[in-house]
Design brief:
Layout: E1 5-10, E2 16-19, E3 25-30, H1 35-44, H2 46-53, E4 73-76, E5 79-86, E6 94-95, E7 98-102, H3 109-136, E8 143-146, E9 153-155, E10 161-164, H4 172-184, H5 193-202, H6 206-221
Parallel strand pairs: 1-3, 5-7, 8-10
Antiparallel strand pairs: 2-3, 4-5, 6-7, 9-10
Helix pairs in contact: 3-4, 4-5, 4-6
The protein binds zinc ion (ZN).
Amino acid sequence: MELEYEIKYSKRKTVNISVERDRSIIVRAPEGVSEEKIDFIIKSKRQWILDKVNHEQKYPVKLEPKEFVSGETIMYLGRNYQLLVVDEEIEGIEFNQRFLISRSNQKEAYSLLKDWYMDRAKIKIEPKVKSYAQNLGVNYKEVKISDMKYRWGSCTPNNNVIFNWRLIKAPMHVLDYLIVHELAHLIEPNHTPEFWNIVSIQVPTYLKAKEWLKQNGYKLEVEF
Ligand SMILES: [Zn+2]
């Protein structure tokens, strides 16, 4: 198999190879390094790169971005719902087993949907964080809903917990797992057996959630 890669030159000092989440290979190199030299490096690191490319956390496909036309499906809490563009005037997004948007708002569909998801993420995630934090006996300062691209959640040093709004595309049991995962890090920073023990007490089905993420995680990364 021939490895395809993209070279990005910059003012850096060393050559760095990375395999992105969508399995594309990016070589970052100092200006002036020849393509032959890079090709040599790629060949010498071939096995390492292949291991990375085939790692289970890399995702099999790059999904196409939505065009926001009638009939497209949009994921919410683990299910796909149809989008319908209608002639009547609707303020923002209406959701009732389908997503409705006015034709006059179609151009703004992306930002309207994102606002809708941010709101839903806040409504769904905040109370869960509160109750799981109580169960675990941990304190946090604030829950923030963010727009991180490749992380589902994180804790900041000053005990804020941050969750990606895209999480509410996932089924509720996965959402529970991801929330508990972050909160459990307030007790145990590393993925030790003790960490997983804490997680499993709160979310006994956490292995199912991990499996769902392995199979479907890439669907959360595209917008909607
Ligand atoms: Zn973790």
